[in-house]
Amino acid sequence: DRPPRFHRKLVHVNEDGNSSSGGHFRVMQWNILAQALGEGMDSFVHCPLEALSWSQRKYLILEEILTHRPHVLCLQEVDHFFDTFQPVLSSLGYHGHFCPKPWSPCLDVEGNNGPDGCALFYDQAEFELLDSVNIRLSAMRIPTNQVAVVTMLRSRSNGRCLCVAATHLKARAGWERLRTAQGCDLLRQLQGLVKRPERDVPLLVCGDFNAVPSEEVYRRFRTSPLCLDSAYKKLSTDGATEPAYTTWKVRPSGECCSTLDYIWYGSDSLRVEAALQMPTEEQIGPNRLPSFNYPSDHLSLVCDFSFRD
Ligand code: NDP
Ligand code: CA
Fold first, then answer.
1. From 82, 101, 187, 209, which residue has the greatest number of CB atoms within 10 Å?
2. Each residue's pLDDT tens digit, 85-113
3. Ligand 1 proximity of 207 Cβ (cutoff 6 Å)
């Protein structure tokens, strides 16, 4: 009597068909729901605790990753990096970096598995590593509890460089100004990494921004000098509208159905070729997320990109 697993279609969105110099690659962005938070803090009212056990969820998370086989994988709320994702994904050809949050709320949960944080993996057959840095985001020069992993890669198929950042901004209503400050700090630090005298390094910023599209931090990303655009808008009929939701859950405080997760890409250097459709309300089901067949309250975002010439 469990609802069927989602079947999400990969939609081709590159209308001009100008695919350039090879070097297609796939990116996945996903807040996987920290194990300690899911069991100990979130109080999802329609999700049985049995569905939240790590022994159930870890296979569903790995299955989702392996179904799409991204070349670049950006994860938030990772509190099983060293005992699960790093060993499993490295046996499948990935290499990864992890940045724990300095004061992870997971540490307040009894029986926790360590701090949660952001993780960034890349497929070593597709990319070679140039550099990776862990960043603590500041607000008005004061370090905050939010972080980013920034990895500089080089494509093995065409030699092009790619800079990828994975981040998770401060959650909850009332913290909009902190998110804006954190986003601006990240943009400033990325600018220092990708600006080159010859040509800028193509940039991807994947994250749970905890901000809806009308928030200031979204506007700052859209209007930054880095020429960033949000990839999932390409799925809309007008090409300019974000999906209706990337997270959908019910807590005692009520239902939360909103768009908080984004894949930002340098639109002058990268082109979106395809994007994975969001499941429909009917597919998600009346109990929303997480559930026995989907392990997180956030949906994964998957996009295929190519390098522009
Ligand atoms: P955030 O406010 O950014 O949220 C932390 C996590 O809680 C996120 O992963 C978020 O998920 C999730 N979350 C959001 N809304 C809810 C909700 N309504 N119910 C349950 N979970 C929710 O946390 P901070 O990084 O600012 O850390 C806050 C906590 O960390 C404090 O409550 C404290 O426990 C601890 N802390 C401890 C310090 C210390 O000195 N020991 C210092 C600072 C923090 P999502 O992104 O999916 O919404
Ligand atoms: Ca969460």
1. 209
2. 999 999 999 999 999 999 999 999 999 99
3. no
Q: Which two tokens stand for residue 303?
A: 């996009």
Ligand 2 midpoint to CA 35 (Å): 10
Q: Which ligand is nearest to the CA of 172?
A: 1
Residue nearest (by alpha carbon) to ligand 1 atom 40: 103
Kindly state if the Cβ of 103 falls inside 6 Å of ligand 1. yes
pLDDT by residue for the chain (309 residues), tens only, comes to: 566 678 899 999 977 777 666 689 999 999 999 999 999 999 999 999 999 999 999 999 999 999 999 999 999 999 999 999 999 999 999 999 999 999 999 999 999 999 999 999 999 999 999 999 999 999 999 999 999 999 999 999 999 999 999 999 999 999 999 999 999 999 999 999 999 998 899 999 999 999 999 999 999 999 999 999 999 999 999 999 999 999 999 999 999 999 999 999 999 999 999 999 999 999 999 999 999 999 999 999 999 999 998
Domains in the chain, ordered, with CATH?
10-307 (3.60.10.10)
Q: What share of the chain is helix, strand, coil (3-state, %, to 5)?
A: 25, 35, 40
Pairing of strands 25-31, 72-78: parallel
Using only C-alpha atoms, what is the Rg of the chain? Answer: 18
Local structure of 70: helix, strand or coil: coil
Distance in Å, CA 38 to ligand 2 centroid? 7
Distance separating alpha carbons of residues 91 and 84, to the nearest angstrom? 11
Measured in angstroms, how far is the CA atom of residue 295 from the centroid of ligand 2? 12
Task: Determine if ligand 1 sits within 6 Å of the CB of residue 145.
Answer: yes
247 CA: nearest ligand 1 atom: 47
Q: Token pair 């999700």 is at which residue? A: 47
- Assess whether the previous peptide bond of 100 is cis (omega < 30° from 0): no
Atom of ligand 1 nearest to the CA of 297: 47
Ligand 1: centre distance to CA 171 (Å) = 7
